[in-house]
């Protein structure tokens, strides 16, 4: 089934029972910890002295996490309603984030504007994702850091992300047109797109659910109406793993 990116125009990004609430409660804590540690402790960047671009920011779920850590964040998304919601929510919680409506394949910024560009939970929604990677590289400074997170195209991801979470009636928690398994991206495919854009991949790490049995039990409890979808993520947080068979994240450096 084709991906319906238009659904995000009507998404309530900050509702604990929305179809993206697993991003807030399970995935975000894992990836913000990984990325922030990478950038500050391993690479040694000062959040107050660099500019960060969130490509495909949606309603601002990850942009706000970066902003809370002190990073100077700009966010772009092609969904105008999502950007308006992101602006309203960041103002409500007192965060200064610069939001713009824009497609990932055509960013409204000059060459080499940002020190860090990240694209998370987005590339698997873009049929021409290599063009989005190239455009991110264009606005990234030489020596800048490109962060990514997406879903691998494997049997495991088909069974969990598609069959269990989208299709099977007894475990379905997200709409059946959120993801198309054929659009999932194998690591070597993404690394090739990065290489073509003059971004050298440095590290790739897997992301898995810490408590898979508890995750399934929590989904069944949610399906019976006993908890929110956000509660499912709290029961089974994502963790960094060597297993790349589901989701993976990592970083590269622009070489030229």
TrEMBL record:
Residues 53-146 form the Methyltransferase type domain. GO terms for biological process: methylation. GO terms for molecular function: 3-demethylubiquinol 3-O-methyltransferase activity; polyprenyldihydroxybenzoate methyltransferase activity. Pfam families: Methyltransf_11. The keyword Cytoplasm does not apply. It comes from the Bacteria. Keywords: Methyltransferase, S-adenosyl-L-methionine, Transferase, Ubiquinone biosynthesis. This is Methyl transferase. The lineage of its organism: Bacteria, Pseudomonadati, Myxococcota, Myxococcia, Myxococcales. The gene is stiK.
